[in-house]
Amino acid sequence: MVSGIHPRRNAVEGTPDPRICETVISWTSDHGIEGQTVIFSAHVATSSTVESLRRKAPAPRQVPGLLSARTAPAALANKKPYPSPQLSRECMVACWEDERSIDRFLQDHPTGRALASGWTAKMQLIRAVGVWPGLDEDLTAEAGDRAKGYTGPTVAVTIGTAYLRTLLGFVRVNNGLEAQFLDAPGAIWGTLMTNLGQRLVATLTIWENSKAAADYVRHGAHGRAVAEHFDPVRDPTGHTFVTGGGFFGFRPLEVTGGVGGRNPLEASMLADRVA
Q1: Structural domain containing residue 172
Q2: Regarding beta strands 258-259 and 200-207, do their DSSP bridges make them parallel or antiparallel, or are they unpaired?
């Protein structure tokens, strides 16, 4: 792992900006890992309510190296019977051809520059169930057996498209999942992502290790929800409430920046959790 304080580079000139410093946590000095054909990223940034609601996901045809991206305002996990939107914060999860494409996006694209002010994780896929929206690739094959033997911190993404007819039932079931997450052993941080215009529902969570994430999925309210609402024969990419998505686990390759306020997130939160 390489960890330190580095000056953020000027997006236009590519020179270090001495006024802005950021924590950089890197688990490998070479992110071009053998056998990896794509790389993923996750972003969390402070925004205005208007911007987070109006933000459209960048289109692959308009961003070099981008294969798929989804954006959404954030929401807080809570134990209340109703959602807790955090509209002043926005998130994006994406898949890319290579790491350089992520860097160019964060420097050159308007949405990228907005997200660059917050928290960014570059990630390697190590576990996949279902499909990633906008991708045709077999991500189970892409993940391969990378999860075996890996004991470090894990980023997890659940993502899909909600059925409007079962939305209220989804909210009720999700209340139990949120409460379970807040008390889950090994959970470091998490947020919900909801884009009503796109019917996108997702979660972005960080865990001490993949076992902690798997235990959460298999037990408690989440385990009961899977047993009651997931039928892989009927829909292998969803369940009673969501379709066209899945569960994905990632090994963080590099984490930079952070966001403050409610539910703060800093790169340094992972600094002492490397296997």
Answers
A1: 2-270
A2: unpaired
